[in-house]
């Protein structure tokens, strides 16, 4: 349990975002396919889940724009 006199900080008690991505083996395309609900289900706060999902969506849309441009 965390207490003000404890040498362990709050951030050390809970997994970091990087640790969650590693534990869940999320990288590359898997990240792009995750939804806000997916991010929430693996432990991200609502605000963080919303930001990540929006970012993943933007990247996926840019990817498809590049593919369409190349195919012309």
From TrEMBL:
<dbReference type="InterPro" id="IPR013761">
    <property type="entry name" value="SAM/pointed_sf"/>
</dbReference>
<protein>
    <recommendedName>
        <fullName>SAM domain-containing protein</fullName>
    </recommendedName>
</protein>
